[in-house]
Amino acid sequence: MHYLVCSNCGHLNEVNNEFVEFCFKCKKKMDSSFSSWQIQNPEKTFEEYKRLVCISEEEAPQVALKPKRKFRLWLILALTIATFAVMYTVGYRIGSYYFTESTQKIEKELAGFCTEINRSCPTMIDQITRLDGALIIPPKNDQV
């Protein structure tokens, strides 16, 4: 009896024919299947494959491969969090720079408009409406 070690989970899969492609335990395609091996070695037979690639019954107890650790999920999660943190920080810095600058420009322009309007006040807009003056009311900042 010959076995093929799964590169994903470390399971020993019994190789009883040429069509063993997927691990019986994790159901993932094995890297060293006969069909993949035969592409690189077209002149070789299944018996040579078992002798060269597979593990014999005597060697099976000695092979105690640890499965690949599932770092991929943790790596993706860590990279996503790091990317989000960097993008948030950069966006906050850029946004606060541009919005603070534009707010100050708007307040300057409004002050200029108010000064112009106040020079000609009080003025009658129509028969019943009188403009006494204009002033800028600062925004309410409830943030601490």
Could you please describe the fold and organization of this structure?
With 144 residues, this protein is mainly alpha-helical. It has two domains: 2-62, no CATH class; 87-131, no CATH class. The chain has three helices and five strands. The protein has helices at residues 34-40, 46-52, 71-119; strands at 2-5, 12-15, 55-56, 123-124, 130-131. A hairpin with a 6-residue loop joins β1 (2-5) and β2 (12-15). The longest helix has 49 residues, at 71-119.
SS-derived structural category: mainly alpha
Q: In the residues, how many domains can be counted? A: 2
Shape: rod-shaped
Mean pLDDT: 81
Beta strands, count: 5
Helix content: 40-55%
Strand order, main sheet: write it out.
Answer: 2-1-3
Low-confidence stretches: none
Q: Outline the biggest β-sheet.
A: 3 strands, antiparallel
Report the order of strands and helices: EEHHEHEE
How much of the sequence lies in strands comes to 5-15%
